[in-house]
Amino acid sequence: MRMTLRHVLISGRIDRFAIALSGLCVAHCFVTAVVLGLLASAGGLFESPIFHEAGLVIAILLGAVALGHGAIVHGFMMPAAIGSLGLGVMAGALTMDHGMQESLYTLIGVGILALGHDLNHRAGR
Description:
With 125 residues, this protein is mainly α. It is 86% helix and 0% strand.
């Protein structure tokens, strides 16, 4: 079965994918900050600022598309508003120097965004 973008958006799969991506982001940030931070030899590769910046930009774009589409389809603004707060916190993390503060803001933003995606998915049922 061929999946069109419209079908993916309507079925809520993009929200589920975005929630999974948020979970992977949380896992990555946790592993990088705690485990790989302790292992300096391995930490250099995954702690690269470009890795975080690219991931955040992709997550922000995907989140904006999914939340905007949900608001248009089901008409509820609360999921988009909550998710937008998370997107803003994530965008703010992009302006920070790479380190623990940036990771903390990223985790907070991702958590808020995941809540917005979950609400968006539930509203579309």
